[in-house]
Write a structure and sequence with these properties.
Strand order of the largest sheet: 1-2
Distance between the termini: 143 Å
Oligomer: single chain
Largest sheet: 2 strands, antiparallel
Order of helices and strands: HHHEHHEHEHHEHHHHHHHEEH
Number of strands: 6
Radius of gyration: 39 Å
Strand content: 5-15%
Structural class: mainly alpha
Shape: elongated
């Protein structure tokens, strides 16, 4: 056994402690003194954060409630079938009606705006808060979640043909659309709401491609959409000039419908000049005596007619028989496209009173009846 002395253990322990540098536990050595934030700085930070939040909150409330928008300005916003709440918010922002698109989207989500906003063209203003904007874009026909159908209305379709096409595409039933065409109250001065004949809409259902609600319970709204489109496309300055010459909108649309049905679109300006020359020309008006003699108008009075027009047809007693009655028919005979309307408003100038279709597929124009007859009796005449 090794020799052992009483003081050896104490000496060894003291030596070990000395080597370690301290007698504290290692974890205790890592413990640092906690530093406290300056109370004044903490208070300043709290006040600054509160001020920022209050400022942001006030800006959002200002936008939500339409405060401080300045003078009231009217803005037109169109909502289409392709729109979502997000794109509607973008349109409102671009129009200056809201400032924060993301905040409107948040409000729209909370208020179920997608169940209220529908397709249409709406007049809104800068005095409207978020609620008023949503209400202002509300449609009784459907909302953004409703099923829609796309329909292209060809130029030159009559009201009857247009209604048949709408029914075929599933917009509504033909019966409901016909009833709306007869009795719906349209808010346009040029529509005769006292009439219950579908001809009151003839000429005003603008041919275009539309998105309609499927199986709508408001067929009148579908018809109104086409009339509204026409109203937005009309050139007010040209209409004013036409009225100064004695042609109101109804007469212009009647002339445009005749132009639409008489040509494929390549010579509408010259067709228009012939019509105006026959209406306004001096003397016997080139031997026409004001008779427009347009086949399409007579066929409008003879629905279901097939084959060539006969002398018996030309003897039919109808105000649409322009072989029998001078001047314009009582209504348009179809719904013209924009090019025909523009030709009616700004016809070319010519001395032509006649035209006939050649074998080349083009109209040949003549200033006198003799010239016209010579062409009709030539090998170039297309019949």
């Amino acid at each position: 056994m090794a020799d052992y002395k009483k003081g050896d253990t104490a000496s060894w322990d003291t030596e070990q402690v000395r080597r370690s540098g301290t007698g504290r536990h290692p974890a205790a050595r890592r413990r640092k003194k906690r530093r406290h934030m300056n109370p004044l700085l903490y208070l300043l930070l709290v006040v600054l954060t509160s001020a920022i939040l209050a400022g942001v909150g006030w800006l959002l409330i200002t936008d939500l409630c339409a405060f401080n928008r300045g003078s009231i300005t009217n803005v037109t916003v169109e909502v289409t079938a392709e729109d979502t709440v997000s794109t509607v918010a973008e349109k409102l922002q671009d129009a200056g009606l809201i400032k924060y698109k993301w905040f409107f989207k948040l409000y729209a989500g909370i208020s179920n705006a997608d169940e209220k906003i529908g397709m249409g063209t709406y007049t809104l203003n800068t005095d409207m808060d978020y609620h008023a904007l949503v209400v202002g874009m509300r449609s009784t026909s459907g909302n953004m979640n409703a099923e829609t159908v796309r329909v292209t209305i060809p130029e030159g379709y009559t009201v009857a043909q247009t209604i048949h096409l709408l029914a075929e595409k599933g917009v509504s039933t033909e019966e409901a659309l016909l009833e709306a065409a007869k009795t719906y109250k349209f808010d346009y001065s040029f529509i005769d709401n006292s009439s219950q004949d579908i001809s009151r809409l003839e000429g005003y259902l603008f041919p275009d491609t539309y998105e309609f609600y499927a199986n709508t319970k408001k067929p009148g709204a579908a018809l109104d959409k086409m009339i509204s489109t026409l109203n937005s496309r009309l050139d007010d300055e040209l209409l004013t000039e036409a009225e100064a010459r004695g042609y109101d909108l109804k007469k212009i649309m009647t002339i445009a419908s005749l132009i639409e049905k008489e040509t494929d679109g390549t010579d509408q300006g010259l067709i228009a000049s012939v019509i105006y020359n026959r209406l306004e020309g001096a003397g016997d008006k080139g031997g026409t005596y004001g008779l427009l003699q347009i086949d399409a108008a007579l066929l409008y009075a003879l629905p279901g007619h097939t084959g060539a027009i006969t002398n018996e047809d030309k003897a039919v007693d109808s105000p649409y028989n322009l072989y029998k009655y001078a001047g314009l028919p009582p209504t348009p005979i179809a719904n013209p496209g924009l090019a025909a309307i523009e030709a009616a408003l700004e016809p070319e100038e010519s001395n032509y009173y006649y035209y006939a279709l050649g074998k080349d597929g083009k109209h040949h124009f003549s200033a006198t009846l003799k010239e016209h007859n010579n062409f009709v009796n030539s090998s170039e005449y297309g019949g």
